[in-house]
Design goal:
There is one protein chain. The chain is α/β, with parallel strands linked by helices. The chain is built from 12 helices and 15 strands. The protein has 2 domains: 228 residues, 3-Layer(aba) Sandwich (Aspartate Aminotransferase, domain 2), CATH 3.40.640; 125 residues, Aspartate Aminotransferase, domain 1, CATH 3.90.1150.10. Helices cover 40% and strands 15% of the residues. The strands form 4 sheets. The protein has a 7-stranded mixed sheet, sandwiched between helices. Strands 7-6-13 form a 3-stranded antiparallel sheet, with no helix packed on it.
């Protein structure tokens, strides 16, 4: 089976370092908010070029707690994209805010910044741009649109190590949220997340609220939750962080090979010139029958994914007005994600590309006949 994402090979490559890191935690007898979490927070903040990083227990909680810390309250509106994973919307709903969706640019798959101004109302408190598949929203341009008073919270769940004009994703907004789910470019062996910011007040609120709002073991001063990055995950992430840039470079090489081998069959996500993406996912739209292609690849034991089968506004759990989202609907009908992970051999990439090309040629012959 050719998997869309195979995590086993990465563990085997780093096995000795990861095993040692986990044993170090087990020998320490300290498993929650101790030395490994503190060290990882410092190392990741330094990597991003921000002042503060606060580990929490998931990317969803990172979004939710960053919005809390930025002052988003029930009744506020938060502008975001409908073409994203469900947790982006869930986190906005959990803080009591209303998500306001702006359609995407069908080439980049990112929030269409030309549409943001029309979505702003007196109730708009924040914007959550999603750096989708490792492609980056231009936050400086977004800031010029929304002004200084509307908060910008970057959803960086898929953009670890991607850069815009040489600066790291997660370093531009008022705060940013990262996920360390196992399939992420920087992934642990369970759930994990982090809030990054240059604002000490935001960092302080997240640090307090991730631990019930407690200031010591017997006293709490505000409402909070249990949302803590654990020591084992932090130890694993510290190992993987050392290799993140190299892994992302390999992903870019794999993407370049796909583009070389499939110039006419797929239309890959367009990356702006000033962005160095991390290719969390190699996503493209099909110039042919998407569902037929997926079935043909399945028959050859090649796994693909659809990101995303439907906009958030068509999910059963969505609550709100349904805006016209023509570009999003079109991309949902055409998008496909091919096998992509740093350890994938070129030979497998060529096998996948050959299967896609064969299907496309068969489709073309059928049209001509």
């Amino acid at each position: 089976m050719i998997w869309r994402c195979d995590l086993t090979l990465q563990y085997l490559e780093m096995k000795s370092e990861i095993d040692e890191a986990m044993q170090r935690v087990l020998r320490s007898g300290r498993y929650v908010l101790a030395d490994e979490v503190r060290a990882f927070e410092q190392e990741f903040a330094r990597y991003l070029g921000v002042a503060h990083a606060v580990g929490v227990n998931s990317g969803t909680d990172a979004i939710m707690m960053a919005l809390w810390a930025l002052g988003v309250q029930p009744g506020d509106e938060v502008i975001t994209t409908p073409f994203t994973a469900i947790p982006t919307y869930s986190a906005i709903r959990h803080v009591g805010a209303t998500a306001v969706f702006v359609d995407i640019d069908p080439r980049t798959f990112l929030m269409d910044l030309d549409r943001v101004a029309a979505a702003i109302t007196p109730r708009t408190r924040a914007v959550v741009p999603v750096h989708l598949f490792g492609n980056l929203v231009d936050i400086a341009r977004l800031r010029g649109i929304v002004g200084p008073h509307i908060k910008i919270m970057e959803d960086c769940a898929q953009s670890h190590g991607a850069t815009l004009r040489g600066a790291q994703s997660g370093s531009f907004g008022d705060a940013s949220a990262f996920s360390f789910y196992p399939t992420k470019n920087l992934g642990g062996y369970g759930d994990g997340g982090l809030v990054a910011t240059n604002d000490p007040a935001v960092a302080g609120i997240v640090r307090s609220r991730r631990m019930y709002g407690m200031v010591n073991k017997d006293e709490f001063v505000e409402d909070g939750v249990n949302s803590r990055l654990d020591e084992l995950q932090a130890a694993v992430l510290r190992v993987k962080l050392r290799y993140l840039d190299a892994m992302n470079a390999r992903r870019r090489a794999v993407a370049a090979l796909y583009r070389e081998l499939l110039p006419d069959v797929l239309h890959p996500q367009q990356i702006p010139d000033e962005v160095v993406p991390n290719y969390h996912v190699y996503a493209a739209t099909c110039a042919t029958d998407r569902d037929g292609l997926i079935a043909a690849l399945d028959a050859q034991a090649i796994q693909t994914n659809i990101y995303y089968p439907m906009p958030l506004t068509r999910q059963k759990g969505y609550r709100g007005a349904t805006p016209a989202l023509e570009a999003t609907h079109a991309v949902c009908r055409q998008a496909i994600a091919l096998p992509m992970y740093p350890e994938i051999p070129d030979a497998i990439v060529r096998t996948v590309a050959a299967a896609i090309t064969t299907f496309a040629q068969g489709q073309a012959r059928g049209v001509r006949s």
